[in-house]
Structures are given as C-alpha cells and as structure tokens.
Amino acid sequence: MELKIENLSKTYSNGIQALKNVDLTISQGMFGLLGPNGAGKTTLMRTIAALQEPDSGSIFLDELDVLNNRIAFRRILGYLPQEFGVYNRINAESLLNHLAVLKGIIDKKEREEQVKALLELTGLYQHRKRNVSTYSGGMRQRFGIAQALLGKPSLIIVDEPTAGLDPAGRNQFYNILSEIGENIIVILSTHIVEDVKELCPNMAIISQGNVLFQGKTQDALDEYKDKVWEKIIKKNELADYQKHYNMIFSKLIAGKPVIHVLSDTIPDNGFKKVEVDLEDVFFSELVTHFNQKPK
Q1: How far apart are CA 184 and CA 115, in angstroms?
Q2: Which residue among 62, 119, 257, 275 sits deepest, i.e. has the most Cβ atoms within 10 Å of its Cβ?
Q3: Whole-structure pTM value
Q4: How much of the chain is helix, strand and coil, in % rounded to 5?
C-alpha cells in the first residue's frame, strides 16, 4: 500500500501559504513528518484526512483518489487530531461503542469484539467504566488511538500525539504505535525529534510549507556524518560564534552554552566531533533551507 501526494498547495485567506507544491510518497509502516510549529504539518494532515480542500494537487492511496472519493476514503482512515475532544459524561467503553457505530460497524457482536480488543491493546480495559473526561493526558491519547483504530483502517494519521505527555505516557504511546505500525501506514506528525527517532524508519522534514528532506531516517543521519562539531563556550561568546560559524543550535548544560556547528572540517581546536543524532539533522536542514550553507 502506498500514499502518493503530488504538487499539494494551500494558501489561506489571510495570505499565509501553508503548503508549497508538496510531494511525498509514503509506504506501509511508520512514517514521521517532522517540523517546527507553524511548518504546515497540521494543514497537510487535515488535507490528507479530507477535512479541507487544497488549492491544487492530488492525493492517492493506491488507486483511490482521496480528494474525489472522500466518503470511501474515510471508511479506511483512522485519525487522531492534535486537539481530541470527548464527551464529559460518558465512559470509555460506551463512547468507543458509540464511535464504532458512527464508523459504520453496525453488527453488535463485531462492534463489541473490536471495542474490547482496542481497550485491551491501549491498556484501558480496566478503566473502561471511567468517564474519558477524567483520564490523564496519556490515557486520553491512548483512547484517541483506540478510536482511530476502529474499523481496521489502512491509514492512520496522528497529529502531535505526545505533546504534553510525561516520559511514561510517551513510552506507552510509542509501544502502541510501534505495534500497530507493522501492517498499515501510520503517519506521525510532530515537532518532537525524539518521537521520529524512536518510531520511524522513514521520515520527511517540513518547514514553511516546503518539504526539505524525505527518505530513510538512517540516510538522513549518514548525510551529516562527520560534519557536526560541538564546543562548550562562555555565554558572552555566543553572539560571536553565531556570526562566524554555521551554528545549527545551542543548548545550556550545567549553565554553560554548548553549541553545535556544521562544517566539513574541524572549525578550530576547541571543537570536537559528535555522533550525529536526528536533532542535528533537523536543525541542519532548517539552517540549510535558510541559505546558510555548510562551510
């Protein structure tokens, strides 16, 4: 199964061009869409989910024309939006059963089996009689995955699913996504580098509506191998280093700035080569996109 997006563009009425001729090919398995806030990720996810019209372009899931067959597509789509609302006075089991009916699962036995299986998969079965509105953030996100899996979809979209979760909640979410991502297409849209690093063998980086990179996550790491250097500096030196080096990011460790710069050769004797991680790739692609080429 393959999702193919070609020349997708979207400009809002306020003049913001959220998508600029986006081309993506996404195959079965976990796929990470990584980008900063405001990059166009949610616009792309809502467009793929047939919730809004693009100005131009096409989306095909195998032979199915998504934009012209929205009802048929929604039958095989699971979607967990960034903001997932729930009814205040209904328990998880009843709400999931109600959503299953809306999804078109009319047979009572089949519906009950799916509801039970999904509550067990997401670790919520023992909490099935609690109102979802009383769930923690992590539990609510797991319920969101359960409802997205109703009807055994061929494609699942999850938009910023771990934002606001604590480490334990994030790990539980990782485990569920890893399990369901083996046999279907799962698109994980996030600004959190760790999400893509942990889950996605294939990925794309998007910024200001442009796709900056698409390919294997390992290929992205290999592209910047031996090109990222690290140095601990003084706080009052930061501006000078930003001016004279191709800095990709800085962070404070024990109160001292640690900078990473992009260079084919060692910038000076105070730098040391670091093992490239996905955070380096992410910021390097953003830097390169803004015409700050590696030295």
Answers
A1: 19
A2: 119
A3: 0.84
A4: 35, 30, 35
Q: Return the number of other C-beta atoms located less than 10 Å from residue 52's C-beta.
A: 12
In whole angstroms, give the CA distance from residue 160 to residue 279.
17
Question: Is there a contact between 36 and 286 (Cβ–Cβ < 8 Å)?
Answer: yes
Q: Please report the pLDDT score of residue 18 as a whole number.
A: 93
Two tokens at 96? Answer: 């999931």
d(CA 254, CA 256): 6
- How confident is the model at residue 295, as a pLDDT? 39
* Residue 294 lies inside a defined structural domain of this protein: no
In the predicted model, residues of the chain with pLDDT beneath 70 are 84-86, 289-295
Is residue 107 classed exposed, middle or buried when 0-12, 13-18 and 19+ CB atoms within 10 A define those classes?
exposed
**Whole-number Å distance between alpha carbons of 146 and 140:** 10
Is residue 132 a contact partner of residue 92, using CB atoms and an 8 Å limit? yes
Q: Is residue 210 part of a domain?
A: yes
The number of folded domains in the chain is 2
* Structural contact between residues 204 and 24, judged by C-beta atoms closer than 8 angstroms: yes
Same domain flag for 168 and 276: no
